[in-house]
Specification:
The active site is at 69, 94. InterPro entries: ClpP, ClpP/crotonase-like_dom_sf, ClpP/TepA, ClpP_His_AS, ClpP_Ser_AS. By secondary structure, the protein is α/β, with parallel strands linked by helices. It has a single domain, classed as Alpha-Beta Complex (2-enoyl-CoA Hydratase, Chain A, domain 1). It has helices at residues 42-54, 70-76, 104-129, 133-139, 148-154, 168-171, and strands at residues 8-10, 32-34, 61-63, 66-68, 83-85, 90-93, 144-146, 159-160. The strands form 3 sheets. The protein has a 3-stranded parallel β-sheet, covered by helices on one side. Strands 4-6-7 form a 3-stranded mixed β-sheet. Helix 1 packs parallel to helix 2 (70-76) and helix 3 (104-129) packs across helix 4 (133-139).
Length: 188
């Protein structure tokens, strides 16, 4: 795995093709746990984000430990109502950062590119958190760490999970068809 993807846990659906929207229809197909110590490369994270947006099935996201930088964006990009965190996790948002080397012209090109990415990321956060661009810009000017409750209020996640569901129906277990073995279906 590339450094940007290390720490992201992808649990595919038990049925081939279901992770890309084929199959069971409304069942969550792609539990994604953004827990890297740092967010990684923006373009690698945007590749995951684009895939999440392409998938027809609901996407359940979890923060276990920490969702920082691109990890927090992917947490926010889950299906509304299915974006979760454990109670002692931390969520961090900030503007993109990077470095530039080389000729002055190349440095200017890289600076222009990071400013474009910054604007793009702000738009994505605004879309998924329902915050205004002005609020996003202000919040992301520097590293901003949040508790799960603060991230919930900000719109990055929907639920802080303290206890697992107690009833069988909420936990869920169903087979894709009568001929298949029963496999647990992800429930959010």
């Amino acid at each position: 795995m590339t450094p940007a993807l290390k720490g992201f846990v992808y649990k595919p659906s038990p049925r081939p093709g279901a992770a890309l929207g084929e199959g069971w229809g409304k069942e969550p197909a792609l539990p994604l746990t953004p827990t890297p110590p740092a967010g990684g490369m923006v373009t690698s994270g945007l590749a995951i984000y684009d895939t999440m947006q392409y998938i027809l099935n609901p996407i359940c996201t979890w923060c276990v430990g920490q969702a920082a930088s691109m990890g927090s964006l992917l947490l926010a990009a889950g299906t509304p109502g299915m974006r979760h965190s454990l109670p002692n996790s931390r969520i961090m948002i900030h503007q993109p950062s990077g470095g530039a080397r080389g000729q002055a012209t190349d440095i200017a090109i890289q600076a222009e590119e990071i400013m474009k990415l910054k604007k793009q990321l702000y738009g994505i956060y605004a879309k998924h958190t329902k915050q205004s661009l002005q609020v996003i810009e202000s919040a992301m000017e520097r590293d901003r760490y949040m508790s799960p409750m603060e991230a919930q209020e900000f719109g990055i996640l929907d639920k802080v999970l303290v206890h697992p569901p107690q009833d069988e129906e909420s936990r869920g277990s169903q087979a894709p068809d009568a001929g298949a073995a029963a496999l647990p279906t992800p429930r959010c």
